[in-house]
Amino acid sequence: MSEFYVGSEVGQLKRVLLHRPERALNHLTPSNCHELLFDDVLAVERAGEEHDMFARTLTDQGVHVYLLHDLLVETLAVPEAKQWLLDTQLNHYRLGYQFASDVRAYLADIDHNTLADILLGGLSYIDLPVQSSSMMQAMHDKTDFVIEPLPNHLFTRDTSCWVYGGVSLNPMAKPARQRETNHLRAIYRWHPEFAGSAFINYLGDEVRDYDNAMIEGGDVLVIGRGAVLIGMSERTTPQGVEQLARSLLFSGQAKEVIAVQLPKNRSCMHLDTVMTHMDVHTFSVYPTVMRPDLPCWRLTRKGEDGLNVDAQSCYLTAIEKALDVGPLNIITTGGDSYAAEREQWNDANNVLTVKPGVVIGYEGNTYTNEKYDKAGIKVLSVPGDQLGRGRGGARCMSCPLERDGI
């Protein structure tokens, strides 16, 4: 296979990473779902069926689908990777010295498939067949978690994002998601599929404290031709944008980064919930949020170690210049103002482009899908009644590993 490279948002998609929701959703309850960043509990079996249909749609389009669980199992077969993950995900500071040691000893002896289930889906005290001399077990209810589930792994776009010839292992904003990155860190370092490939780690692959420099892949759009569009949202900070931009620009992988400021609220937690790229000059936009007067900056390389940061009058104009195209074709969310708000909430603007002018989106967004169709965009619709409850659509649930440029 060719090397991992993502040259755009709309070129032919060739390889993609997904995560089928499994054990973590069984641990999602009305009392913990908000802490775990979900608005509601999901019907687990139905969510899995919907995800299978999503994966099958991609496969039918000739896209090679990798599943996170499978990659993690295969990574755990590498002794160094397994030891690193156990030491990192169950360190002494998280569980206390004695309890961490006891839990790690138990997990080190189980099969890799079960271990992957637990690392991704969580482990409660009642399911831990170990009696430790630590105080921890006596101080917790049986339904408390030794290892918290990671249901947001469903949204593989955020944890790591491939930009041209490299990957950004992202410092996640919310504690409920921060351990996710270590799974990708281990996979990209040790899994045989990745270990032999040459690619850049833009933010490095070591565990470190990024402080206020947070960035998530849902805010990063690889719009092509050396340009990257990044939203500064409730999950991505200017400090995070600057860190990634410096690495992109000084590695020579990008020529410019366009940063746009978004409102800090859950309905537009990432740029791709209000704007996605559908064809070379066509974008889907939720106009209530993506107003032409949003503050916007263009970042380019300055000398040996500096950045030029230039305010732009309009992010749309900045995109046109970066892509060297005429006026952009903007397709807004469908229906009246009420329907448009509902459909944006249900990810009508969060579509995954498979190839120019062909996208995958939720079938329930009928008004917006009809507008796409009339504009010449083919929508491959999939059910999302359950998956959408996590506030993410087809783009959120996919991490492209290989895609053509434009």
From TrEMBL:
EC number: 3.5.3.6
Domain of life: Bacteria
Gene3D superfamilies on file: Arginine deiminase, L-arginine/glycine Amidinotransferase, Chain A
Catalysed reactions, semicolon-separated: L-arginine + H2O = L-citrulline + NH4(+)
Active site: 396 (amidino-cysteine intermediate)
Record keyword Cytoplasm present: yes
Pathway named in the protein's UniProt entry: Amino-acid degradation; L-arginine degradation via ADI pathway; carbamoyl phosphate from L-arginine: step 1/2
Gene Ontology terms: cellular component: cytoplasm
Keyword presence, Cell membrane: no
GO molecular function list: arginine deiminase activity
Places the protein is found: Cytoplasm
Record Pfam families: ADI
UniProt xrefs under SUPFAM superfamilies: Pentein
Assigned keywords, A-Z: Arginine metabolism, Cytoplasm, Hydrolase
Gene Ontology biological process terms, A to Z: L-arginine deiminase pathway
Main localization category: cytoplasm
Family assignment from sequence similarity: Belongs to the arginine deiminase family.
HAMAP family assigned to the protein according to its UniProt record, in alphabetical order: Arg_deiminase (MF_00242)
The protein, known as: Arginine deiminase
Gene that encodes it: arcA
